[in-house]
Amino acid sequence: MLRPEQMSKVSVTGSKGVMPEVIEAVHDLRLLHVTEYDGSWQEEFGFETGTPIEGAESASDKLVTVRSLKSILGVEDSDAGRQRIVPDDALGEPLEEIRTEVNELDDRRSELENKLRAVDEEIDAMEPFVDLGIDLDLLSGYDTLQVVVGHGNRDEIERAVVDAGEINAYEIFSGERTHAIFGRPTEGASEMALTDALVGAEFATLEVPDASGSPEDHIRDLEQEKRELESKLETVESELHDIAVEEGEFLLAAEERLDIDVQKTEAPLSFATTENAFVAEGWIPTERYNTFASELKSIVGEHVDVEELERAEFSHDGHDHAREGVPEAGGTAAATDGGAVTMSNDEPPVVQNNSGAVKPFELLVQAVNRPNYYEFDPTVILFLTFPAFFGFMIGDFGYGVIYTAIGYYLYAGFESETFKSMGGMTIAAGLFTTLFGILYGEIFGFHLITQYLWEGALGLSHPPIEKGLSPATSEWALGWLTVSVVVGIFHLNVGYIFDFVEKFQLHGAKEAVLEAGSWILMLNGLWIWVFSDALGGVPPEFLFTTFASGGLLPLGFSGFSYTVGWAGLGLYLLGAAFLAMAEPAELAEFASVLSNVLSYTRLGAVLIAKASMAFAVNLLVFGVYTTGHGGEVEWHFGLGHMPHIGEMVHGHEVTNILFGGLFHSGAAGVVGGLLVLVVGHLVVLALGVTSAGLQAVRLEYVEFFGKFFEGGGREYEPFGYDRQFTTED
Q1: What is the pTM of this model?
Q2: Any idea of the CA torsion for 45, 49, 50, 52, to the nearest 10 degrees?
Q3: pLDDT > 70: percent of the chain
Q4: Would residue 608 count as lying in a domain?
Q5: Is residue 370 part of a domain?
Q6: What total of structural domains would you count in the chain?
Q7: Which of 376, 427, 579, 627 is close enough to 518 for a disulfide, judged by CB 3.0 to 4.6 Å?
Q8: What is the pLDDT of residue 561?
Q9: Taking each helix axis from N to C terminus, what angle separates 602-622 and 667-687, rounded to the nearest 10 degrees?
């Protein structure tokens, strides 16, 4: 799980006469991640980049046609039915007939849509004249009058016309927003005298339509024309829809068939070829090599030679991946000297080797980057830690059940691998939230599990762990900060150990010790010092009491001794010295082993914050009262009724009413309380994702990944096609 599948570089060599058969066989096997020929053999051996097989151009043209038809008809993958065979003759005349009919209808649709837009524009242009209420033929065609129509402020318009020296007389007719100004210009005035007079006024000119009669009649005619066009457009759309229903399944299958044909016919573009031979290289999972070689030999025979050139190790020298010797296996040719990368020095593609419940968490890793071939794949660590972080911070049975249900819906309700992965991660996070909810004894913030399980059925005085909100349990809040620090130390150690192993394999023991071992020494040395008597009373007391014999989590640890503490500081300084020998510039980060660990205290902080939000919602709805017992104060929700101060409840006296609760304030309060209860818990549920989820992701990406993870791996994309709509049988 921590390493991807091992990959082997293979070479497939044969005569050009069998190249189509080899391509067909390799395509069906779907194992070879093809390496592009880089032209490196051209001068020495005369190899050139191959040319497409006959029929490639025709297949490409038809593929473009099919995709265009799919787009026009709106055909989606969901329109597919059963898988079908697409014979060659179906891609000839039948496809051309569909293309002709669809293109004609599409052209007709475009024409009708353009006409509709034009009619709509005419209607919009006519609306102001309806407001004006003057027949259109009265607004133009005068010899001695000038007419301007538009929108503006009537007072400003009239003032501008009055002040105009070239206008002898005028009349203004107005609707609600539209004005028509009739003006008689002076003798010799310009044809634009009235328009020029209005330049300085608040006025927007409208063009008078070239029509006659009342605007209302003209709009009625336009709306009738619009209805006719819409009816014709609906008919065309209906015909296109009928074609989509009738031919959609065929088009999906034809696209897939042509896509496969293009893949096969253009495959030689990645090969090195001469006049008589070809060489194809690529990567396959090492464990599949024998299957690949034997299947190819059985299909093509002795006309093709398959050779395993190298097996990539999980380390490299910083420039190129190392090569293991390849043993003779399966009766096929093998490069026992480790071979050489013949086409290009390409890195192996990455197949993350995870399965079952771990696999969905690959999505979380790939959100940063795909691991490169030579580094550890942290997916399994995320599987172990991310749901635990999330569940610890939310820790509520009710919320956990809802998260699990949402995860199951995503996993079972969608075909997309992305949604399935999100569902798998959500299920895991929900299960941990449910588990911690049982341990905390809470369901939607109520201590009902505590009351009926831990105290009732099992006879305990309290649940195994508590969040620390109530006065009687407040020490837990500080205890969780200690736990968060310890979790951070452990988590970061895993990251540094990964880095140590990678550097050991990459550069050897010296660099591993100096570059990665230094951080391991600094991290653990500093925190041994902090968790010891060496600093006297500087560290807070709760760091030493949380795990003490009488502490919250009685593990018998109450801190390291004075001597061990100073030894820890010595380890820290030794690590700093190693780091200075390897990377002096990184000494500027000497305090990061402190700050990185303290960053994990967000686990305890979010735990308290989320618990407080749920508490606030329940307080508003049901109210909270406190009781005194043995000097300790405990709070209780008023689920049944709200007692009075001094009343005895469960053998204890009520000492204070923090809030009476909406449910105990009449009918209106019950209605408002239900609304607050539902909306409030939905908000807490949503914020669980945006706060607890994001904080958990941040710890993984920033703190953990930053210690060893680089990414940059290539996805394994074997030559072939995963058929959905077609079959060859």
Answers
A1: 0.80
A2: -170
A3: 95
A4: no
A5: no
A6: 1
A7: 579
A8: 95
A9: 170
